[in-house]
Amino acid sequence: MTDPKFLMRACLWYDFKKHTTSAASFRTLSEIFDDKVLTQTQVYEWFEQFKTSDDSLEDNGRGNPPQTIHNDILKQVIESDPSQTTRELAQ
Questions:
Q1: Among 7, 29, 66, 77, fewest CB within 10 Å belongs to which?
Q2: pTM of the full predicted structure?
Q3: 31 assigned to some structural domain
């Protein structure tokens, strides 16, 4: 079966193509699907994405944030003094 959020995005894309506002689209979907609908912020973000001519309905996600420290360095520090707290390691 198709992902329910993908189907919601298809409804949003349809509303966008009909020049429906994101607020009106959110209200309509909320009335029909109750709490199973995307949040108002998500609806707004999808409309913004469609405005940039990205007609893809795939959720690209956020991805992982870049690492600020190398795992090897952290591992060496922990091995040198395993009793350190996370607060001490953060400094």
A1: 66
A2: 0.59
A3: yes
